[in-house]
Amino acid sequence: MPHIRRRPALAACLIAAALLSAAAAPAAAADIRIGALAFRGTEEAVHTWGPTVDALARALPEHNLVLVPLDLVAMGRAVAVGDVDFVLTNPGHYVELELAHTITRIATLETTDHGTPRAAVGSVIFTRADRADIQSLTDLRGMVFEAVAPTAFGGFQIAWRELRDAGVEPHDDFAELRFTGFPLDQIVYDVRDRRADAGTVRACLLEEMAAEGRIDLADFHILNPMPADGFPCLVSSRLYPDWAFAKLRHTDRALAKQVAMALLGLGMAGPLPAGAAQWTVPLSYQPVYDLYADLRIGPFAVEPSEVFAEMLRRHWEWPALAAALLLLAGLFHLRTERLVARRTAELHREMDERRKAQEEAQLRLAELAHVSRQSTMGELASGLAHEINQPLAAITNYANGCIRRLEVDAGNAEILEAIRQIVRQAQRAAGIIQNIRAFLRKGEESRRPLDVNTVLRDAAALLAAETRHARVAVALDLGDGLPPVLADRIQLEQVVVNLMRNAVEAMQAVPPDERRLTLRTAAEDGGTAVLVAVRDTGPGLPADARERVFEPFFTTKPNGMGLGLSISQSIVENHGGWLGIEEEPSGAGTVVAFSLPAWTEDRAADARILGGTQASGITPASPPAR
Ligand code: ADP
Asked: What is the largest CA-CA distance in the chain?
């Protein structure tokens, strides 16, 4: 810590010696140590305060006065440990030390630069005289602004308070807030030479520079001019007490009194010693406290958490709104997630259902094909029996005739036996065919009361792909409240599918937009039967074929079997109904219709008594012969 012992006329060499001996040299017991704030370095501090301490030393010859230049941090530490007896510091720093370490001012600096003594400091905020766009402090928003340092009392903080009062927050509202450091003159030149839009310096600097011929005051425009009675310079701010000379708590009161009197007496008895400062009675530093409190700096600096709490208290509506929005966003997110999850589950379920329906349709088509093959075989056997029975019967008859003649003529016994064999074999062949027919006819039937409309819907769904592919429009015209019919579902479905396929195939002969297939159901005969009609818009039956279409093997199609209609007729008749082709005007299409007896509880009871079988497995007592 540099310290400089002051004696009259010895000042210069003592300063040099002290600078060399530096912090290690302990102070002599009688030394009176005066800490001076050296904000621009030790030399500058010695230059500024050396003459004053010299003058004091002359006034108090019995004491060894030592000037100790200290920066802000070092002075804080020196005061805390009582390493100095007096301090000489700026107003802002003084109030900090007063609060922290109970130091007491004994004099306030009084400057007489312009002939008028003043114990106050202020700041000037200025721009170029030709800046028509900057007329008030509020015009400074968005400008480049210069000041010396963030901690400079007269060089920034005083102006800050005025700007804030005008609603301009230097740290937020300027395009740039530039701190230039010393010397202050630089700010003045920067504004003049348009390197900055505006700036602040301590009051009187502009006048001093103008007096030295370095600037022309007419080039500048002072913003926010304040009336300041007796203050010799232009000023943009309120005034504050100047530097303080203060004693520490441990400093002897009598000594403090002596020093105070010596300070106040400087320049009183004769001219003020060259370079020494003029001092006046200690002023109130309350305005400085007010400034710090306003700006919340120095001893009034608040913790970030306090700032946050204060902001929250003043502007609670914004965080509340943000929280509400966050909450809403959270809820919206949750809802979306739930909807997505639900929709995904639905999609899975739908896919499962579709897959199951497809599997079922496959199964039923296979079942239908199986039954169809079985019915075809039955029909084939019936047709064969019908066709072969005649020649077989003829063979038997002719053979029997031969036998009778040979018996009468007592002919060749061997030939007789051979012919008898022919008869037996012919009868056996007829028997085999009957057996096959009977076997296939029996099939595996499962009759249950069925809703015909459901069967039709199922059949239409089964053939949906085929009808779509053949570009046929299918319409359902289903009657309400139909009685159920007792039938084998698969056989009934096969009838409907056969008729629909015939209709679709017939309609390939007409243009696609005329292809319409209608499935109609209605109650018949006072509700004792159910009618099913399959109507198409095809070319109709060829006139000469009308009588023959129910014959097995009759077909007009190149790849047809000619069994569809005859099988369908057999199935329907087997269920106690009828199947026929309705007359239609020529060219208006074809209607193939069938009717099945309605199933009622009475019939079921009758069937149980007659056949002694379960209602679900009833076979009609006498199935109609084909
Ligand atoms: P296939 O369809 O194998 O020919 P079917 O017994 O089902 O055997 O039909 C016999 C014939 O009846 C068909 O070849 C066709 O000439 C005629 N036919 C059946 N249904 C229709 C219809 N809806 N429109 C026109 N002709 C039909």
From this structure: 195
CA distance 508 to 340: 46
Comparison of pLDDT for 416 and 433, the residue scoring more: 416
CA of 555 to the centre of ligand 1 (A): 6
CATH of the domain at 228: 3.40.190.10
Q: Which DSSP category does 142 fall into?
A: T
Q: What tens digit of pLDDT does each residue of 329-348 get?
A: 999 999 999 999 998 999 99
The whole-number pLDDT of residue 303 equals 65
Give the residue whose CA is nearest to atom 12 of ligand 1.
549
Pocket-testing residue among 382, 547, 565, ligand 1, by greatest number of atoms within 8 A of Cβ: 565
Per the structure, how many domains does the chain have?
3
Token couple for 206: 């502009």
Is the full-model pTM beyond 0.70? no
Whether 13 is in a domain gets the answer yes
What the block records as the tokens of 482 is 């139909």
> Is the omega angle on the peptide bond into residue 183 within 30 degrees of 0, that is, cis?
yes
**Of all protein residues, whose CA lies closest to atom 1 belonging to ligand 1?**
562
Predicted confidence (pLDDT) per residue in 556-610, tens digit: 888 888 888 988 998 899 899 999 997 666 678 999 999 999 998 766 555 444 4
Find the Cα–Cα–Cα–Cα dihedral 160, 162, 167, 173, rounded to 10°: -30
